[in-house]
Predict the 3D structure of the following.
Amino acid sequence: MASFLGLIRLVVGAWAFLLLVSATPASAQQVNPTASSVKEQQLLQELNRIQGRVSIPDQRSGVLEQPQGREWREFRNVTLRWIGGVAILGMIAVILIFYLTRGMVRIEGGRSGRTIVRFSGFERFVHWMTATCFVILAISGLNITFGRPLLLPLIGFEAFSEWSQWAKYAHNYLSFPFTLGVVLIFLMWIGGNIPGKVDIDWIKRGGGLFHDHPPAPRFNAGQKGIYWIVVVGGGLVAATGYQLMFPFYVSGIEGMQLAQILHSIVAVLFVAAMLAHIYIGTIGMEGAFEAMGSGEVDVNWAREHHSLWLDEQNARSRAGDANPNPAVTAAE
């Protein structure tokens, strides 16, 4: 009898042990604290995870909170604001100091009264389409990062909510013509933006901002730098932006977080670089805006800033027409 009771106890004990193991959460089964292969970081990640079970097919929705989410939120709310603030405010400070010390870069020989075609109507259309979209994308994007701490206290919750909604619509829909513009800019000007030896001399001599004007082709080294910033930076923000706009088609939540980090960092650096481009193209240099305004620039401006290009245009004109320089016209 005693042996029979002992057998019953053994069976009941084994059955209870099996029930206990089957009731143990999956996370506890996956991480064995006594196993020699378990790492401390793995244990901490499991402890910080809040996860449940769901009845819908997407089991990822059962993860309510995870360590990577906390790290991403820290980046978005703290680190990104520091990166963006330093980059953008730093660039504004550099531009202001340069303008106060150097002033506008004037045409040293004065205006000649003659102009030469620099950009066609199609080139200017693509530039201004891309530039307009970029300005709106920059403002609406910066609102996501800086709007709540800076704008919300000034205009209130209702106005900030309405503004943010329309800014989101603009950010999403204007991304398409912006991307098209970046592609067209790449195709239009790739031939003139390959770095060469002449660019090294241009950089060594400061691009004519401080001393004499070094010879340069149609696009000097500074403009080539802006070109590649637009092409590479625009391509990155477009690719990561569409991944965020159409979530989970390419990657999971970790990939989405990485895409947002890359998108935001490239975007704020892109904005900082474009501030310098806008400054040089407007109040920073006399005659520069006319290139994208009317499409024609003064001959003396072209001779000072793009002498190699001007010589090339004159040579082509003389070879193709009896007129010594049909590309150059008298300014009205």
Q: What stands out?
A: The CA atoms of residues 233 and 266 lie 6 Å apart. The beta strands are 50-51, 63-65, 114-117, 296-298, 328-330.
